[in-house]
Write a structure and sequence with these properties.
309 residues; CHAD domain; 77% helix
Length: 309
């Protein structure tokens, strides 16, 4: 990997630095993922692929490069399948280690055994992909561009001049997202209402989380240009990503359990079912606070003003 010691000043300089940093992290964890000793290695490689994807989306106007956000996304999806198995195994193991009736522990134990076999197959597929021509071509293209970077004319512009133009469209995409309207009319929701709500509108929340994540990754690159308000805003965006992510984890877990048992969860795993419903209600209360904040006109204006300076 090529190292640049000069302080980045232009749009292109910052693009290079961001691509180099994320690429280096992706390649750093590649060998460990193939060894498959610690699930955290896979998680870190996948996180940095997502960061790299966000960088290419955010800095696209500055780049003259054959690599596309779409190509990087395909790599992430391959790793995501194995990561989903790891997350599910960790979740089920934590549940099984908790204070549960013997029958529910046994049911989870049987399910964990099945999932471990499935994970073995997913790892084989992931290993094959990382050794495949498609992934190696992408890796070679990244390394080649970092050796001899090419840019569009706008890359020569001072980053301080262009920074608001770079970040404001991302903020607009975040604030105008329809996911903010999900459940806005529900003040106190029952378990049945929440389950119905997420069944109907989970795709909007899922996409909102992606938008928040991309905004977060790109904002983190420019912390040195802004003050405390910017950091507070970044923290709030992280919270949006986190809470929606927990909602999604609950939905994935619930669907997974329902698919593997003929009886409703309330009968087959009553203790676990109550725990999941309780967690969902707690998250809903946290979501409502964030929802109210991000729909508040004064807060939205403040978010814009922070970027404009």
């Amino acid at each position: 990997m090529v190292a640049r010691k000069t302080t980045p000043k232009t749009f292109g300089d910052w693009a290079y630095q961001a691509i180099a940093k994320s690429s280096d992290q992706v390649f750093r964890y590649e060998g460990a993922v193939l060894e498959d000793k610690d699930p955290e290695d896979l998680h870190q490689m996948r996180v940095n692929l997502r960061r790299l994807r966000s960088v290419f989306a955010g800095f696209n106007a500055a780049l003259d490069c054959a690599i596309t956000e779409r190509k990087i996304a395909k790599c992430g999806r391959f790793l995501g399948r194995l990561r989903d198995c790891d997350v599910m195994l960790e979740t089920l193991t934590q549940l099984a280690d908790g204070d549960l009736p013997k029958s529910e522990k046994q049911s989870l134990g049987d399910l964990i055994a099945v999932l471990k076999q499935e994970r073995q197959q997913q790892f084989k597929a992931t290993k094959a992909f990382l050794l495949s021509g498609k992934y190696q071509t992408l890796k070679s293209q990244l390394q080649g561009w970092l050796e001899k970077p090419k840019y569009q004319a706008i890359a020569a512009v001072d980053i301080r001049l262009i920074l608001p133009d770079l970040l404001l469209p991302q903020l607009a995409t975040l604030l105008m997202h329809p996911g903010w309207r999900v459940g806005i009319s529900l003040k106190k929701a029952t378990t049945a209402q929440l389950n119905k709500l997420f069944a109907q509108h989970s795709k909007y929340l899922h996409n909102l989380r992606k938008v928040a994540k991309r905004s977060r990754y790109n904002r983190e690159l420019f912390l040195s240009f802004y003050g405390k308000a910017y950091k507070r805003d970044l923290k709030q965006i992280k919270q949006v990503q986190s809470i929606i992510g927990e909602f999604q984890d609950l939905d994935v877990l619930t669907c997974f359990l329902q698919q593997h048992f003929e009886q409703p969860l309330s009968k087959k795993l009553p203790t676990i079912s109550k725990q999941l419903n309780c967690k969902r209600r707690s998250l809903w209360q946290e979501w409502q606070l964030l929802q109210k904040k991000f729909l508040d006109p004064d807060y939205r204006r403040a978010l814009h003003q922070t970027l404009i300076g």
